[in-house]
């Protein structure tokens, strides 16, 4: 009898077999169990749809040729599979939090299901800091859901949100979970970052220096281009847009996030704040080209409309 008290979570652990590469585990779980389409899985893992299709085919082929059994793991096997399960649950939540191409910004059913799975994991592994960190992170982010859109359904940035609309009981729960998680693992550190936003009574009261420091720690233990992007934004808020832009420019030159719209929109915002209108317009235009969510597209279109005569500087 399995110790996993939830049928769907049991399948997540079953799918995340350690014989598969972590990327293959996560992709297969998201596609077969997470309720995500192949394009959504590709976006979640920052790759192309074609590359994702090939990755899924290779994973299924390896399962067949290596005779990997599709069976519920025993309790002693759970730790080896936990990383893939956590990543899968988090990416289900991310697709719900910022939908790839739905008519709205938030797919509430995905957020709710990811949080439900997180709560089940926390009940199963109450002393595991990364489980607590992931649950804290999701609860804290989701507590802001009613403030993320205005009455017309348009995007409201974090700095402009009405914090009275944030769900206080969920904030309190998330803060308590984040405190229990500490700030050692990647999800626990992200929860600590979300907690800094939750504790700030106003946008101006946000401790951006601490957030930048937490992103620096996250970059050390779980380096990725997206973490570097987020650190750059935090540095810009803490030390000024020019400091953040230097990090983003280096990241852009690497080409690693060339097709990621949030890199271009973040860069556009810093260029806007520096008064570099032509370059800001070019970056907003590139972000708009890459964005598929209609709510984000309306936001970027509005920002771009502020520069009707701007043209990018000649190289």
Describe it for me?
The structure is a single chain. Mean pLDDT is 93; it is low at 311-315. The chain has 15 helices and no strands. The protein has 315 residues and is mainly alpha-helical. The longest helix has 20 residues, at 78-97.
What are the salient characteristics of this protein?
315 residues, mainly alpha, 15 helices, 65% helix, 0% strand, globular
Quaternary structure of the protein: single chain
Helical segment tally?
15
Order of helices and strands: HHHHHHHHHHHHHHH
Roughly what percent helix? 55-70%
Distance between the termini: 65 Å
Biggest sheet overview: none
> Over all CA atoms, what is the radius of gyration?
20 Å
Low-confidence stretches: 311-315
Strand content: under 5%
Structural class: mainly alpha
What's the rounded overall pLDDT mean?
93
Shape: globular
> What is the number of strand segments?
0
Summarize the structure.
With 315 residues, the protein is mainly alpha-helical.
């Amino acid at each position: 009898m399995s110790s996993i008290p939830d049928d769907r979570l049991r399948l997540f652990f079953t799918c995340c077999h350690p014989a598969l590469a972590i990327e293959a585990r996560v992709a297969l779980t998201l596609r077969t169990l997470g309720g995500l389409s192949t394009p959504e899985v590709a976006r979640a893992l920052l790759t192309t749809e074609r590359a994702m299709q090939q990755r899924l085919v290779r994973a299924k082929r390896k399962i067949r040729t290596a005779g990997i059994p599709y069976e519920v793991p025993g309790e002693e096997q759970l730790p080896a599979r936990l990383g893939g399960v956590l990543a899968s649950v988090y990416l289900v939540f991310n697709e719900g939090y910022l939908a790839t191409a739905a008519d709205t910004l938030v797919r509430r059913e995905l957020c709710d299901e990811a949080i439900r799975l997180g709560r089940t994991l926390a009940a199963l592994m109450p002393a595991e800091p990364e489980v607590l960190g992931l649950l804290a992170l999701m609860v804290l982010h989701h507590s802001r859901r009613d403030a993320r859109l205005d009455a017309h359904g348009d995007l409201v940035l974090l700095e402009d949100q009405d914090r009275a609309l944030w769900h206080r009981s969920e904030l309190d729960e998330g803060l308590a979970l984040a405190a229990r998680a500490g700030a050692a693992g990647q999800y626990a550190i992200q929860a600590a970052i979300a907690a800094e936003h939750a504790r700030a009574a106003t946008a101006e009261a946000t401790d951006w220096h601490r957030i930048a420091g937490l992103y620096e720690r996250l970059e050390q233990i779980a380096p990725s281009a997206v973490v570097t992007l987020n650190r750059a934004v935090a540095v810009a808020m803490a030390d000024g847009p020019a400091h953040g832009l230097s990090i983003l420019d280096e990241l852009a030159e690497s080409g690693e996030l060339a097709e990621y719209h949030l890199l271009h929109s973040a860069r556009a915002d810093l260029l806007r704040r520096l008064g570099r209108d032509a370059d800001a317009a070019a970056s907003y235009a590139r972000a708009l080209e890459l964005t598929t969510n209609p709510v984000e597209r309306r936001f970027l279109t509005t920002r771009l409309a502020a520069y009707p005569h701007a043209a990018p500087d000649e190289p």
